[in-house]
Amino acid sequence: MKRFFFLLAAALTLSSCSVMQNLNSERLLQGGVYIAQALSLTDDQVKQYVSQYITQLDAQSEVLPENNSYTKRLRKLTQKLDGVNEEPLNFKVYRNNEINAFACADGSVRVYTGIMDVMTDDELLGVIGHEMGHVALHHTRKQMQKQMLTSAALAGLASTSDKVATLTDSQLGALGEVILNAKFSRDMESEADDYGYNYLCEAGKNPWVMVQSFEKMEKLSGESQSQTSTVTNLFSSHPNTADRIEHISQRCLNDGYKRP
């Protein structure tokens, strides 16, 4: 009888080990699938997913009408902006006191009244140019790929088929984090700055306005805790501001632009 119980216990132990090995193998296999899906995420998929998020965000935000003075100002400012990566741009103004603006892979550009209140037209154009740089250089897709590997909500989102899934609320929330609070690398920020600089030059603007916009946001972020919170969304993802100011300033000097 003792031998029977010993054999039974041994069998259960072996069985448990086998089950655990199978579970670990399944997890490893699934992890490999998620990695493959993340790496295969296409720009078209990103555009379709982002479009779902923007549709929800527009519905939840106070979008100012065409006859509003803020919207008229933005329309006049961006009338010569056609698109990014052959994607037509669509601009809207959110009534929101935060110092924020962002551009998305689907061509959506959203500007908050808070940043319009503190920026001149040319400074605002510099900020928009920078945000468009993240889109043109595929930084949004790269951030989304990274998030797919670390976020349970976005894990396995990419598909080998042409059909893009409808995002759940949790997935929309996770995607919102990618869009609004992306922590871009120093190299990505520098690339987007250079894109914005080049855009301003091509538009016939003095690129020193980009430096002035950075300096203005840096000043606002240091004035008071209450004002810091209004700059957080736009500025927290943009580290090493002094280095970025120095870089763009040096480009302006090298290209012969005089500071206004």
List the helices and strands and how they pair.
Layout lengths: L1 H38 L3 H18 L8 H9 L5 E2 L2 E2 L1 E5 L6 E3 L4 E5 H6 L2 H16 L2 H12 L18 H12 L5 H17 L5 H16 L1 H11 L5 H14 L6
Parallel strand pairs: 3-5
Antiparallel strand pairs: 1-2, 4-5
- Contiguous low-pLDDT stretches (5 residues minimum) are 1-31, 224-230
Main β-sheet: number of strands, strand sense, barrel status? 3 strands, mixed
Proportion of residues in helical segments? 55-70%
Give the topology string: H per helix, E per strand.
HHHEEEEEHHHHHHHH
Radius of gyration: 24 Å
Strand content: 5-15%
Structural class, please?
mainly alpha
Number of helices, where a helix is a run of at least 4 consecutive DSSP H or I residues: 11
Q: Overall 3D geometry?
A: globular
- Quote the average pLDDT: 79
Spatially, the strands of the biggest sheet line up as: 3-5-4
